[in-house]
Design goal:
Elements: H1 2-15, H2 22-28, H3 30-46, H4 50-64, E1 67-68, E2 73-74, E3 79-80, E4 87-88, E5 93-94, E6 99-100, E7 105-107, E8 120-121, E9 126-127, E10 132-134, E11 138-139, E12 144-145, E13 150-151, E14 160-162, E15 167-170, H5 179-184, H6 197-231, H7 251-257
Parallel strand pairs: 1-4, 2-5, 3-6, 4-7, 5-8, 6-9, 7-10, 8-11, 9-12, 10-13, 12-14
Antiparallel strand pairs: 14-15
Helix pairs in contact: 3-4
């Protein structure tokens, strides 16, 4: 139990820059307190002491503001950040190294008793603030669920889901992810540079315009050479004054604006 506790404290200090000391994490982080209560409740639940498990879970909810059913399965180094309003259902399964933010619901859509009603999160999944993951499907390893998304379908490993209802907008890890996040395999609040579909479309238009400018510059250069050779005149006399024979389109600068 104490080795798990040390792991939990270490992962919080690694992922939360606001965590200044082990003592602060141990005394002031409700996500950690909720996990400790859950381990006690889950032990009672699996031992057949169902009422005791529910009561311990109820106490954990009272003290932390985080409701975790004693039947839920939670892996190692899970970080529930802020945590207020988090609800995790009975058949939910959370893999190692996951991060869950405030207001998240891992809920069920079925009323069938004994069935797999709640989601399974793979390893390293990030579920951002206010997201609702509803159903007995799997969210693949390393996937991200954006803020306030309502997820009703499986998510492939490494993908990102955003929107209401959530849609898959990224099916592989974003190579342009923040350098620090890439080193840690972690992205705060599940945000990466490629999540916004509007920004993605704008980047596509910028890249397309940049390509057109390049082609036009090449055409003017070709016209300039042909005109100079045929008329034996200085090249600048054969091209209109306002013609751009070199590229001036700042694609990188515009891309930075929409990131």
């Amino acid at each position: 139990m104490f080795s798990r506790l040390r792991e939990d404290i270490a992962c919080i200090r690694e992922r939360d820059p606001a965590a200044r000391s082990t003592w602060e994490v141990l005394t002031c982080y409700p996500g950690l307190h909720a996990l400790i209560w859950h381990r006690l409740a889950h032990a009672a639940w699996t031992a057949g002491l169902r009422w005791a498990g529910r009561f311990l879970s109820h106490l954990g909810r009272f003290f932390s503001g985080i409701e975790i059913h004693p039947g839920a399965t939670i892996g190692r180094r899970v970080f529930i950040d802020h945590g207020m309003g988090v609800v995790i259902g009975e058949t939910a399964e959370i893999g190692d190294d996951c991060t869950i933010y405030q207001g998240v619901t891992l809920g069920g859509t079925s009323l069938a008793k004994g069935a797999k009603r709640h989601p399974t999160l793979g390893k390293g999944v990030i579920v951002s603030a206010g997201a609702k993951v509803l159903g007995g499907f799997t969210v693949g390893d390393g996937a991200r669920v954006g803020s306030n998304a309502v997820l009703l379908q499986p998510v492939p490993p490494g993908a990102t889901a955003v929107g209401i209802p959530a849609r898959i907008v990224q099916k592989s890890a974003d190579a342009a992810r923040e350098e620090a996040a890439a080193k840690m395999g972690f992205s705060a609040y599940g945000v990466t540079l490629g999540d916004d579909p509007v920004a993605q479309a704008m980047k596509g238009l910028i890249d397309n315009a940049s390509s057109h400018e390049h082609q036009i510059a090449l055409l003017w250069q070709a016209i300039e050479k042909l005109s100079a050779r045929s008329r034996e005149l200085p090249a600048t006399d054969c091209v209109p004054q306002d013609a751009h024979t070199t590229e001036r389109f700042d694609a990188e600068g515009l891309n930075r604006l929409v990131k």
